[in-house]
Specification:
The structure holds 2 protein chains of 2 kinds. Chain A is of the alpha/beta class. Chain A folds into 2 domains: 387 residues, 3-Layer(aba) Sandwich (Alkaline Phosphatase, subunit A), CATH 3.40.720.10; 48 residues, no CATH class. In chain A, 31% of the residues lie in helices and 14% in strands. Chain A has 11 helices and 16 strands. Chain A has an 8-stranded mixed sheet, sandwiched between helices. A two-stranded antiparallel ribbon of chain A has the order 2-3. In chain A, strands 4-5 form a two-stranded antiparallel ribbon. Chain A is globular, with a radius of gyration of 22 Å. By secondary structure, chain B is mostly helical. Chain B has a domain of 176 residues. Chain B is 49% helix and 0% strand. Chain B is built from 9 helices and no strands. The termini of chain B are far apart. Classes of the chains: A alpha/beta, B mainly alpha. At the A-B interface, helix 2, strand 8, helix 4, helix 5 and helix 6 of A face helix 5, helix 7 and helix 8 of B.
């Protein structure tokens, strides 16, 4: 174990030096972000905010609240029954002492961490299209011709703060995009379908070739890329490729594949519900994030959790999907509480880890004829970060339609909060200049701790 | 009056025409056709009128704008589908599942897993979660190329040189085996075959120093394995050729266009 740690530190040191040589950036403004870690989670499909962040349990306007007729409350730990109509029951809205929140019954384990949460309600999405909402929530821009026209928030952070890490950004099904000029190509998201694939991609057979052989081949390829950079009209492409070959050399041949194998992760972090129907796979990603952060190998890990696109009577399981997600996030946070920071041993890892949970939009307040809820252009987002004010809630929706309502504080006058505002605020909390990446959005200082 | 049967006698005029008609009219028609043919020939053989060019006054220069001849787009990453198809072709034109079976083998070498493990890393889009294709390389993608390249080259070596396969029927190493320590010219001939296979042009046209760089890789790999104490599955020269193969199937020129 000692040898392994020594190897890792050596590798990390080498990468750090390489990063400095290649022009690593130091953040401006709110500095001191070099030791921070980031986890980005997407609830893929569009979540129902009335079940957690913006609860509704009354029939008002167009709102059909969740009841025992349309939702299966079995297993929802925070479902407290309240009368609705006849034998039909709805839920009791939860409040947390000292926190400004009202929670729905799917909040799960996060209820106990309410004093650490920052919630943004009434996010104005202006879309009910999955690809559009997915890109808008992650990049702050609507797509053009189906393509992302800005980098996603995880890429922004990785580009600014991840150059020295072995893995600046690992993306497991998160909408991660690398768009724009002058970005560090080491921050291109390492996209994989699952954590299991990472293990397989890092594993190498020793039957035909040795680690030394592979390193020699990769070194030749790195030289070839640098040669081509010298002859090409686009030298930055091949120079970036050479850096990626160098990063690969450091990733392969160590013990990483053993540490990051799914059985090892499950054994190391048994508190996650890996068998969960909806968030079981994302629990593996969360365990990976913990192991990679405690070894100081990554800057950002982003992943998605599925099971939220419930148009038909599969809405009955929507509460369970949300609860699994929030239980997973709660387990992630409490696990980080017990782990020391790799470079600041006196600090807990959770004091330097920042979690952003988003979805592409929310679901209609009314139940459709198939028993489900369709897409709706309102949204909420969850932030768990020591740099954000907590417990705190920003934004609101109207009483009868659950649509975003205007709030004061913006330059052009009152308006609802948008995804670009949230992303601009998030990156600015770490000294990153939002305008470098985001065309729109204002930094909402009210969200940030002074 | 006897009725005229349409089936036998037909219409009056038609019947007359087919049985002779008026000879004067026929001659006239033939004459017309002949004149038209002669006229046509005359017209077609006549040389077209040539209009000699005349020089006009040069336009006055009002301003000069330099021509921008720089490249406007950087090289693009080969679509993952093209890479996968090429890969299957190198494996002998097999179907994906056959390639997977051959690459994995039954020897427990763990050279390959399943295609599904590589698709996201190779940048293929995921329509289930609305994720578009990846248009840029990253270290994990290069890792996937390494794993795939390693499987291809090792299995091809076993097929081509371990089996008694004629040169023309070999998949990748389609050249004579030669000695156990080939000199540079002999190595260059083999490299040329691989270079043409993977990069599509002769090695001698590659940027200066490539042949020597790959020869160094070949020699060093061969030397390391010649000095290895334990018995290995491939001979040192075979392992060295596998390394060269890998160095070409993962080459930047293969992945960009």
């Amino acid at each position: 174990m000692k040898t392994f740690r020594r190897d890792l530190l050596k590798a990390a040191g080498a990468v750090l030096l390489a990063g400095m040589g290649a022009g690593g950036r130091s953040p401006s403004g709110r500095g001191g972000s070099e030791d921070e870690y980031f986890v980005f989670i997407q609830a893929a499909g569009g979540w129902d905010v009335t079940l957690w962040s913006d609860p509704r349990n009354e029939k008002k306007g167009i709102i059909d609240p969740a009841t025992t007729d349309n939702l299966d409350p079995t297993g929802l730990t925070k479902w407290k029954e309240a009368p609705f109509s006849g034998s039909t029951r709805t839920f009791e809205v939860l409040t947390s002492r000292g926190a400004p929140f009202r929670f729905g019954p799917a909040i799960g384990g996060l209820f106990d961490l309410a004093d650490r949460l920052t919630i943004v309600n009434g996010l104005e999405m202006n879309t009910v299209s999955h690809p559009d909402g997915t890109l808008f929530s992650a990049t702050g821009r609507h797509p053009v011709g189906g393509r992302a026209v800005a980098s996603s928030v995880d890429t922004m952070v990785a580009n600014e703060l991840g150059g020295a890490q072995m893995i600046p950004l690992l993306s497991v099904g998160f909408p991660s995009y690398f768009v724009g000029d002058g970005l560090d190509r080491r921050a291109v998201p390492l996209r994989v379908g699952s954590i299991d694939a990472v293990t397989r991609l890092l594993a190498r057979s020793e039957v035909y070739e040795t680690t030394e052989d592979r390193r020699a081949i990769t070194a030749v390829l790195s030289e070839e890329a640098r040669d081509l950079a010298g002859r090409s009209a686009s030298p930055e492409l091949f120079t970036g490729l050479a850096l990626q070959y160098d990063a690969l050399q450091k990733m392969i041949g160590g013990s990483l594949e053993a540490v990051f194998s799914v059985p090892s992760l499950q054994k190391a972090h048994p508190r996650f519900a890996y068998g969960g129907k909806f968030a079981g796979a994302s629990a593996v990603s969360a365990a990976f994030a913990i192991e990679a952060m405690r070894r100081n190998l990554v800057r950002c890990v982003s992943f998605s959790s599925t099971g939220f696109d419930t148009h038909t009577n599969n809405y009955r399981s929507h509460g369970a999907a949300l609860q699994e997600l929030f239980d997973m996030v709660a387990t992630l946070v409490t696990t980080l509480d017990g782990i020391p920071h790799p470079t600041k041993p006196s600090d807990k890892l959770s004091e330097h880890t920042h979690i952003l949970v988003v979805s592409e939009f929310c679901r209609t307040p009314q139940i459709n004829q198939a028993g489900g809820r369709d897409h709706y252009p309102n949204n909420s987002a969850l932030v768990i970060s020591p740099r954000f004010k907590h417990p705190f809630v920003l934004g609101k929706t109207d009483e009868e339609q659950v649509l975003p309502a205007a709030i004061p504080g913006f330059l052009g006058g009152p308006r609802p909060v948008g995804p670009a505002d949230l992303l601009a605020t998030f990156v600015s909390a770490f000294g990153i200049e939002p305008r470098r990446y985001l065309r729109d959005g204002e930094v909402v200082e009210a969200l940030l701790r002074t | 009056m006897k009725p005229v049967s349409p089936g036998r006698g037909g219409v009056k005029g038609w019947s007359r025409g087919r049985t002779g008609g008026r000879p004067g009219l026929r001659r006239l028609a033939l004459l017309g056709v002949g004149i038209a043919a002669v006229m046509g020939t005359l017209v077609c053989t006549r040389r077209p009128e040539v209009v000699e060019p005349t020089g006009g006054p040069a336009l006055p220069v009002v301003s000069r704008i330099p021509e921008d001849t720089t490249h406007k787009e950087e090289p693009r990453l080969l679509p993952a589908e093209v890479y996968v198809r090429s890969y299957m072709q190198w494996f002998g034109g097999l179907a994906p599942i056959e390639v997977q079976a051959k690459a994995r083998g039954a020897d427990g070498a763990l050279l390959f897993d399943a295609w599904g493990d590589y698709l996201a890393a190779l940048g293929l889009p995921d329509y289930a979660t609305d994720l578009p294709r990846g248009g840029q390389t990253n270290a994990m993608m290069l890792g996937a190329f390494e794993r795939l390249g390693s499987a291809l080259c090792a299995r091809a070596m076993e097929h081509d040189w371990r089996g008694s396969v004629k040169v023309a029927d070999r998949l990748i190493f389609a050249f004579e085996r030669g000695g156990e320590a080939p000199p540079l010219p002999e190595f260059a001939a083999g490299l040329d075959v691989l270079h043409r296979t993977f990069l599509g042009y002769p090695a001698r046209l590659a940027p200066e120093g490539r042949i020597e760089r790959y020869f160094k890789l070949f020699e060093e790999t061969r030397g390391r394995h010649a000095a290895a104490a334990k018995k290995e599955r491939l001979t040192p020269v075979e392992t060295a050729w596998v390394a060269v193969c890998e160095g070409l199937v993962r080459h930047p020129e293969l992945h960009f266009y």
